[in-house]
Amino acid sequence: MSKKPEHELFTRHPGNPILSVENWPYKANSVFNAAAAQVNGQVLLLARVEDFRGMSHLTAACSDNGIDNWQIDAGPTLMPDAKNYPEELWGIEDPRITWLAEINEWAITYTSYSRGGPLVSLATTKDFKSFNRIGAVMPPEDKDAALFPIRFGDYWAMLHRPVAKTMTIQANIWLSFSPNLRHWGDHKEIIYARMGGWWDSVKIGLSAPPMETEHGWLILYHGVRTTASGSIYRLGLAMLDLKNPAKVLHRSDEWIFGPKARYEREGDVDDVVFPCGWINRNGTVYMYYGAADSCIGLATAKLQDLTDYILNCPADK
Ligand code: BMA
Question: How remote is the CA of residue 164 from the centroid of ligand 1, in Å?
Answer without folding.
Answer: 17
